[in-house]
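lol forgot to send this yesterday, sorry. struct tokens for the thing we talked abt
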């Protein structure tokens, strides 16, 4: 079954890139994407100039804009040429026509439901197991999702994100363990991030629910107007017999430079891929201007503040 779905995805990709002109052009354009690299605390930060991503980076996600546009993830509103394959009974797998990865998928729910991770993390684990040559990622409704009104995941081929190979060098402390899983803190890594390492799906799911519950409490205490859900981006993949999950804790959707005027403006809207180490700049001027110092400043601005992160760690340690 798992081998078959991976084969079906390769067939889907090949078919869409031969018949869908938009996707064909944008995947071909990846070959000419310009990149540059920096290091922050020995973590690799790759910057990519990718003009096709302007629609996602600049997406209007306020309630009025969402109401006034048709949902582009609903079957009825997608281009007739965009094909899909089913994953179980709940999800469709699509080729993303505006790629970051050489193989980039969007995986929406078949039903138009709001983007929420609660009750869906186990689906991420299932996807990571079924298509174990991909990294599965989730962008929260206030953390980079360009379709916050339609539940979906994305997936990109392994070997693309620096975090995939770097996380082991930064893990320091196990703050909660079960027989087959643990939550670990990444130390000196320039993000507020927790790792779930598990050989058992149910235990991975239970530990994620612990993070979600305690992060919800931190968010509720910090905000008078309670957020939709704890602000987070999530990456999950299967590594040998283990599921590896990185949970990036957030406090802000977009950095201040996003709305700055003139020379101070940078169209940077961090989501899972950026926090995983690949920064997407759809405008050439931003690609030219972005530096290690700017990236570090953006990370600090959108991440959960250190005091809140330390409080979250202590709350997780205290759970039964």
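and heres what i got for the seq, position by position
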């Amino acid at each position: 079954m798992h081998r078959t779905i991976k084969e079906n995805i390769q067939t889907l990709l090949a078919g869409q890139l031969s018949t869908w002109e938009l996707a064909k052009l944008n995947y071909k354009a990846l070959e000419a994407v310009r990149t540059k690299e920096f290091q922050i605390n020995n973590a690799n930060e790759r910057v990519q100039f990718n003009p096709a991503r302007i629609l996602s980076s600049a997406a209007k996600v306020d309630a009025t804009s969402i109401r006034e546009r048709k949902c582009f993830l609903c079957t009825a509103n997608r281009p007739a040429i965009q094909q899909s394959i089913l994953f179980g009974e709940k999800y469709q797998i699509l080729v993303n026509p505006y790629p970051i990865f050489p193989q980039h998928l969007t995986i929406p729910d078949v039903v138009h439901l709001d983007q929420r991770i609660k009750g869906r993390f186990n689906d991420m684990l299932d996807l990571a197991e079924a298509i174990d040559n991909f990294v599965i990622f989730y962008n929260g409704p206030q953390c980079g999702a360009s379709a916050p009104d339609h539940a979906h995941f994305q997936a990109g081929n392994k070997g693309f994100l620096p975090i995939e190979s770097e996380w082991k060098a930064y893990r320091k402390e196990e703050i909660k363990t079960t027989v087959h899983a643990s939550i670990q803190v990444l130390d000196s890594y320039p993000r507020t991030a927790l790792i779930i390492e598990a050989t058992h799906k149910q235990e991975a799911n239970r530990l994620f629910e612990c993070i979600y519950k305690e992060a919800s409490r931190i968010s509720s205490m910090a905000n008078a107007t309670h957020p939709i859900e704890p602000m987070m981006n999530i990456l999950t993949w299967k590594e040998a017999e283990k599921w590896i999950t990185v949970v990036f804790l957030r406090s802000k959707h977009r950095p201040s430079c996003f709305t700055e005027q003139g020379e101070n403006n940078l169209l940077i809207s961090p989501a899972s891929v950026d926090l995983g180490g690949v920064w997407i700049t759809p405008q050439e001027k931003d690609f030219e201007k972005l530096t290690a110092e700017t990236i570090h400043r953006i990370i600090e601005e959108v991440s959960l503040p250190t005091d809140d992160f330390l409080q979250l760690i202590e709350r997780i340690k205290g759970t039964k």
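The first helix runs from residue 2 to 19. anyway ping me if u want another try
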